[in-house]
Structure formats: structure tokens, C-alpha cells
């Protein structure tokens, strides 16, 4: 089965925080809008995260992410589960502190309905994370 983008209009997205609560300028919708000029910008604090609730089961196989250099995460923890279950750790990723699109993350394929990406260690002194693009690829089941 070919790999395809899994985030769609019916995917429910939640984030840990938004800079100054300015959701219009820095909200979660900018993770997936395809624009190089918009981004999700977290507020300060440790352990920022993005949670995706897919409308149907998926098998995640790749993660594509583009941070703003200086506001990236040294460690990304991926957790997932089926509906009604507890999150379990799937993988740990170690992105570069770079503005380049990072597409080399291969994820152990797991069937899930919910995915949480936790940004555990920010390169920013205040713990802010800035993401211009987030792509979750795999197979819809």
C-alpha cells in the first residue's frame, strides 16, 4: 500500500499551548496549511506537544517536520493508541536544530487512532517550539 498523508479535515488536532494565546497568528491550523510563512508557535514551558485524533484507524510509518532553527526540539517522543486505550511509546526521534524539512524519520508501523508528539527538549532557552510543517504519513485502514 502506498504511503499517503494521514491528516485530513476530520482529524482533531490539539496542542499544548500557543504563543500569547494568539491562535489566529500562531495556531495549530498552521501545522498543515502548506504555507512557508505561517507556523505553530508554542508558548514557553517544558514538554510541548501536538495530539492528533484520526477519524479512522491508521498505520503511521513516517513523520515529516520543519522547525524554525533555534526553536526546535532535541527529542521528539511519539506515543499512540487505539480509541479508549492509554497512550504507549512508539518511538523517540532526535531532530536537528535546523529550518530544513526533516523527512528521514521512519516510525515503527503501529495501528492507532490517536498520535501524540511530545517535544521534550527545546533548543530555545524558554522552551518554545516553532513548527512550520508537520506531516504524518502512512496508511488509512
TrEMBL record:
InterPro entries reported in the protein's UniProt record: FA58C, Galactose-bd-like_sf
Residue intervals of the F5/8 type C domain: 1-66
GO annotation, cellular component aspect: nucleus
Record localization: Nucleus
Domain of life, per lineage: Eukaryota
SUPFAM superfamilies according to UniProt: Galactose-binding domain-like
Family: Belongs to the NR2C2AP family.
Name of the protein described by the UniProt record: Nuclear receptor 2C2-associated protein
Species of the source: Rhagologus leucostigma
Taxonomic lineage from the root: Eukaryota, Metazoa, Chordata, Craniata, Vertebrata
Gene from which the chain derives: Nr2c2ap
Amino acid at each position: 500500500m502506498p504511503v499517503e498523508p494521514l491528516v485530513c479535515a476530520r482529524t482533531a488536532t490539539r496542542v499544548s499551548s500557543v504563543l500569547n494565546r494568539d491562535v489566529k497568528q500562531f495556531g495549530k491550523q498552521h501545522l498543515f496549511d502548506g504555507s512557508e510563512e505561517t507556523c505553530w508557535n508554542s508558548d514557553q514551558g517544558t514538554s510541548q506537544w501536538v495530539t492528533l485524533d484520526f477519524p479512522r484507524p491508521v498505520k503511521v510509518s513516517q513523520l515529516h517536520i520543519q522547525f524554525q532553527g533555534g526553536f526546535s526540539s532535541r527529542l521528539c517522543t511519539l506515543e499512540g493508541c487505539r480509541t479508549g486505550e492509554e497512550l504507549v511509546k512508539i518511538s523517540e526521534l532526535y531532530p536537528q536544530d535546523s529550518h530544513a524539512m526533516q523527512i528521514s524519520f521512519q516510525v515503527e508501523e503501529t495501528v492507532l487512532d490517536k498520535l501524540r508528539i511530545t517535544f521534550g527538549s527545546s533548543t530555545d532557552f524558554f522552551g518554545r517550539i516553532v513548527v512550520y510543517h508537520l506531516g504524518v504519513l502512512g496508511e488509512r485502514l
